[in-house]
Write a structure and sequence with these properties.
25 strands; three-stranded antiparallel β-sheet
Length: about 600
């Protein structure tokens, strides 16, 4: 008995977040559902307007599906080994076929990308009838494009400043000048190709043209496979978690903007942290904090080029001055990331509002100084000491930390209530001063070391008195608070305390007692944060816990927590931002960079301690 293909279930058409795969080309990404539907893609750039956004509004967001007209069993899927090329296998009552999905890559693609989304259906056995439907909706579902035919199997979609060109092996029907649809059949050994490329509307030639030969698209698929496998070959990943770490590394590479070196926190916006509530944010920008962790993890795996690219991106974006530094930038270095709500979209599973932009860009988050100085220190240790220009930039950061560390801020979690004296932020200001003093000494640089040392020592004393609860033997979230915060697990990461310091052991135990919802799945914090709805467990925090436990030689506990957190990945090894501890469903923007780089750090620590 066969069943018709359906992209929805009764009453709720939205697939679980974990049903999606990601493909990308270090410029943009697409999310592909289990059933072969691209439900999210911003073809021009990570943070540009979408062409397909059905994940945020099932009726109006737009999609691009390829699937059999009937299936005898659910599809299966996997990435081709050491690539971001997705292979989805469909089986019908009469045959079997594979759908290959990728954003094509090539050498020199950073400066001259193809910006091409390639889909190839290949027959494996028997015959399979499939349907392709293209319903692009530009500008986050606001614009139905004007679709035109350009000769033989070549089509364009134009609307506003957006345009796509589709080249295909099959003739498609135009539906109301806005959609394309076709039914086709593949037999054993057959291939049918669909290539969509981003274009500029004014440069689309309305005259008929012949599509490129099919062999060109087959070659591009092979080029993309080779590109990824060549990149993976640069890494050095050993141990029992090597394969999973390589997948995380590929995700982080995909989230890197090749032309600028920026690294986006996630490729999506407004996937909710709490269903039905307003905890929906746009993460398609480059946070200094997240990016520093990313390059740190990539460097641990042998990928060093990305570290220098991001360092240069921050220096450029801040115009070489602390006065121009923000906690985050657009992937091109843009500063104005104005937060807007899009009321015409209902949101994933009707979790409005859908937001673009992020008001957190204007927050004071004092920890960013520490991340940048630690990055400079690590870069120096690798043999690249700061040149004159970079040193002047670093000095402005250190002076700012020395002057501002006594101020309250919004903290690592970007709370939108009143600023507080967060312990994590203070500790990272200490890191700023500590790394600067070591850099000045080893690089033989002139610096106000006496003033910096005085600020560093005063800061440590204050954190150890006002930010520590001797009764519970734990650091606390903020001055005067009795609550803990999962960000405290990062304190030994940067040398503020030793991993096995009794105060840190007490902090780990307090975090587990107060924030653990089962097996090591941690909330970030408890208490009021001015937002409605209860978010899920924050996956990165669980990996931080595993890393702490491993470095405290609590190996069995570390492994148990790590396996619990790692087990929340979907079938392709992709992690979301958060997990519902009750049912295991994924929440938040997807896939999430902080989850992947934290996964790598925990795996590296466990591997090192287990040897």
């Amino acid at each position: 008995m066969t069943k018709r293909v359906k992209n929805q279930t009764a009453g709720d058409p939205y697939p679980p977040i974990g049903d999606y795969a990601m493909i990308g080309d270090c410029h943009s990404v697409a999310l592909v559902s289990r059933t072969g539907s691209i439900d999210w893609s911003c073809p021009r750039r990570f943070d540009a307007g979408s062409a397909f956004a059905r994940i945020l509004d099932w009726e109006h967001g737009g999609y691009y599906s390829i699937a059999p007209t009937e299936m005898s069993e659910p599809p299966t899927r996997a990435y081709i080994h050491n690539t971001m090329v997705l292979a989805t296998t469909f089986r019908s009552s009469e045959g079997e076929c594979v759908l290959y999905d990728c954003c094509t890559m090539r050498r020199g693609g950073a400066e001259n990308p193809r910006r091409e989304l390639l889909r190839i259906v290949e027959g494996v056995r028997g015959r399979v009838e499939l349907r392709v439907h293209l319903a692009a909706r530009f500008d986050y579902g606001a614009v139905k494009p004007w679709i035109r035919r350009h000769g033989h199997r070549l089509y364009s979609a134009i609307g506003g400043d957006d345009a796509l060109v589709l080249c295909t092996d099959v003739e498609c029907d135009l539906i109301d000048d806005h959609d394309l649809d076709a039914v086709f059949t593949v037999g054993e050994g057959d291939r049918v190709r669909f290539a969509i490329s981003n274009a500029e509307p004014a440069k689309i030639d309305p005259r008929p043209a012949d599509p490129p030969p099919a062999s060109k698209f087959d070659a591009r698929l092979e080029d993309t496979i080779k590109w990824w496998q060549r990149w993976c070959g640069q890494g050095d990943i050993q141990g029992p978690y090597a394969e999973a770490c390589m997948r995380s590394a590929m995700v982080l590479k995909t989230l890197t903007n090749a032309p600028t070196g920026a690294i986006v926190a996630a490729p999506t916006t407004s996937l909710p942290e709490s269903l039905g509530h307003a905890r929906n944010w746009d993460y398609r920008f480059s946070w200094i904090r997240d990016s520093q962790f990313t390059v740190r993890s990539m460097r641990e795996l042998g990928f060093e080029k990305e570290a220098d690219g991001f360092r240069r991106f921050v220096e450029r974006s801040a115009a070489g001055s602390v006065e121009n530094l923000q906690i985050m930038f657009g992937v091109g270095g843009e500063r104005r990331l104005v937060e807007l709500e899009l009321p015409h979209l209902e949101g994933y599973k009707r979790s409005a509002p859908v937001r673009i932009g992020n008001a957190a860009a204007d927050q004071l988050q004092l920890d960013v100084y520490g991340y940048l100085l630690d990055l400079a220190w690590e870069w120096h240790r690798m043999g690249s000491s700061p040149d004159d220009d970079y040193w002047r930039f670093l000095v402005t950061l250190v002076d700012a930390a020395a002057e501002r560390w006594k101020e309250p801020d919004s903290g690592i979690w970007e709370m939108r209530g009143e600023p507080r004296h967060f312990v994590h932020s203070k500790a990272m200001c200490w890191v700023t001063l500590d790394r600067a003093l070591m850099l000045a000494d080893e690089s033989l640089r002139r610096a106000p070391t006496k003033r910096w040392k005085a600020a560093r020592d005063e800061l440590r004393h204050e954190v150890e008195t006002k930010g520590f609860d001797p009764k519970r033997n734990t650091f606390v979230q903020s001055y005067g608070s009795e609550e803990v915060d999962a960000s405290l697990l990062l304190l030994p990461n940067f040398g503020f305390v030793d991993w096995d310091d009794p105060r840190m052991i007490g902090t780990v135990d307090a975090v587990r007692e107060d924030l653990d919802l089962g097996g090591g799945l941690l909330r970030r914090y408890v208490g009021e944060d001015s937002l409605s709805g209860e978010e899920g467990t924050f996956l990165a925090c669980s990996f931080w816990l595993a890393e702490c436990l491993a470095n405290q030689d609590r190996i069995d506990e570390a492994r148990e927590v790590f396996e619990k957190a790692a087990g929340t990945a979907n079938d392709l090894g992709l992690f979301a931002e958060e997990v519902n501890a009750k049912d295991g469903s994924l929440l938040g923007n997807f896939p999430q960079g902080i989850s992947h780089f934290s996964h790598v750090a925990a795996a590296v620590a466990l591997t090192a301690k287990s040897e």
